[in-house]
Amino acid sequence: MRVIITGGAGFIGSALVRHLVATRGWHVTNIDKLTYAANLASLNPIANKANYRFVQADICDRAAMDAVFAQVQPQAVMHLAAESHVDRSITGSAEFMQTNIIGTHTLLESARAYWTKLAAAPKAAFRFLHVSTDEVYGSLPPDGFFVETTPYDPRSPYSASKAASDHLVSAWRETYGLPTLITNCSNNYGPYHFPEKLIPLVLLNALEGKPLPIYGDGRQIRDWLYVDDHVSALTLAVERGRVGETYNVGGRAPMENITIVEHICDLLDRLRPAAKPRRELMTFVADRPGHDRRYAIDPTKIETELGWRSKETFGSGIEKTVRWYLENEAWWQPLRQTRYSGTRLGLLPADTAAGKPA
Known about the structure:
Elements lengths: L1 E5 L4 H14 L2 E6 L19 E5 L5 H11 L3 E4 L6 H6 L1 H24 L3 H6 L1 E7 L23 H20 L3 E6 L1 E3 L8 H10 L4 E4 L5 E6 H14 L5 E4 L4 E3 H15 L10 E4 L14 H7 L7 H14 L1 H10 L13 H4 L3
Parallel strand pairs: 1-2, 1-4, 2-3, 4-5, 5-6, 6-10, 7-9, 8-12
Antiparallel strand pairs: 9-11
Helix pairs in contact: 1-8, 2-4, 4-6, 7-9, 9-11
């Protein structure tokens, strides 16, 4: 399989590239702009493989995208390139609109121009997989789960930009016949995760003895998915998914944020004891503006249709994750020193004072 992956130097993208190159033997061309959250070091295990190629380019650059399609002649596109951090979208929404909406439109048009000229058999086999998020559905009440027919109700600039890109992908299927699929996943975690998201941020702050910020009351619920399980779902979606369908991918592990933080503290206390219990570092801070209360995915459709199952429980996955960070300081320490030290993001000016950790 010849495949183009966008955003392959990011967290989920690099896990997907490593899997397809090393385990499946696919010929992968990775397109990445190399923004702050991208890290080519995440691809060191496969960087010299003959079936891997990296192209530094912006998906908003139509000429660059057309050139890659012409050179690679892909059988599939797996589109993961996106600005993804909700906190950053609150104070810097323009980048999210540009990459997530304009970039998706540009990529769709390049894919359509390439696909239209294919002969009948490769044209029928071609797939464009758009990787999205459960955040497009908005916030759930105390019970119930997101399913593929849940109405969209995005609440942040990030989720609104992803909802828009989902609609573009669906429209290109309906209007032009481009064979697209969409996956909407829950919160990923695992190795090589840029340390701005909850789990790696808490983990590294706790290691360094820094405050562990708990937004609001900490009772917000997220559904957690180990990144390698997500990668297996994306691979199945490209291989077996039905054109025009959406598949929700979740680990069946909804948990309160405060429980996640406590679990990480306890794991670190066991694996690398400190002078004091790390739970003492937990600090309640001002909540994120517009913070959704609860997400939870029902993955029955992808389990039933494609035979996918998550292999990791949250307990097994989070221990693997913590152990990886303990053993790979050479990967994350430069990021903490030069790109993001763990300071609070996403506060509006009026909230800044209230949002500083004590």
